[in-house]
Amino acid sequence: MLAIDTREELQRALTMQRTATAKTIMELHGALTGDGTSPEVMAEQVLRLLASYAVLPTLHEYETSMPLRGAFKPGTFGVALIAGEMLLKPVQEVASSFPRAHLMLLIHLLSKLRPGLDPLELLADEITLSLKAGLTAAEHRRLSLERLGSLASALMNVCETYKLIDTAGPCDSAITPLGQRVALHLLDAYEFVNIVVDAHQRLQP
After folding, report:
1. Taking the domains of the chain in order of start, what are their residue ranges?
2. pLDDT digit string (tens) for 120-129?
């Protein structure tokens, strides 16, 4: 997706991220402020902002499209910031049992949710907890599902609020086109962080 072989390339990548993020922060602040703005209106404004970034090319799409190579890449960073502030923070407040897993669970939910799949079961498959002494595998899975209940519910609520999933019934949910785009951007954002961390370690003087 992104090759970082020199310290100059690392600095360019970080500058690109900071510039895009700063722009999104200003726009998100604008969407969340205003005299007399109701929560419903704010949610609609955030949804429009998220959609405007989601339709932009992902980092992978930029790099694989020759005319776009080297161009400014605000889409993925904008989606990541809005998702972190408006989707993941509320989830963390409701369900703090798996603080480091929220982003990957959100990506997993948006990438694999299909009609007929129970979101709770889908999320449970992605959580690995150490078997506690004296618990059978079945008892351990039951405990995991119980602990995941609030997390799954919070994820589903925020995804439905921002039109990332379409819920027709308790076990009949499907990803929307917007949700698919958000998932692609979040996957690229996750990969970008890993690439930058690796480059920083390799290129230290």
Report:
1. 7-202
2. 666 665 554 4
